[in-house]
Write a structure and sequence with these properties.
- By secondary structure, this protein is mainly alpha-helical.
- It has one domain.
- The chain contains three helices and two strands; from the N terminus they run ββααα.
- Strands 1-2 form a two-stranded antiparallel ribbon.
Length: about 80
């Protein structure tokens, strides 16, 4: 199992997500993002704006995901 923080995934806090695969962590991060959106957390809303800008460029978005996946793969197991 490996762990990444919200900040490491482009978010705004130190919430830790743990999983056996990058996809598991990405899903946990997504759920966290929904919760923070519902709470209208200003810092997370800013991070979401940055992600929305990135999503406008499919190539840039894929590069971002590839970089995060490589970072996950390089992490030691907990």
């Amino acid at each position: 199992m490996k762990s990444m923080t919200c900040k490491e995934l482009g978010g705004a806090c130190d919430q830790i997500f743990s999983g056996y695969t990058f996809d598991e962590i990405a899903e946990l991060s997504k759920k966290h993002g929904v919760e923070m959106f519902q709470k209208q957390d200003v810092d997370h809303l800013k991070a979401m704006e940055n992600m929305q800008s990135l999503m406008k460029d499919q190539e840039a978005m894929q590069q971002w995901f590839d970089e995060k996946r490589k970072a996950f793969d390089a992490l030691p197991n907990n």
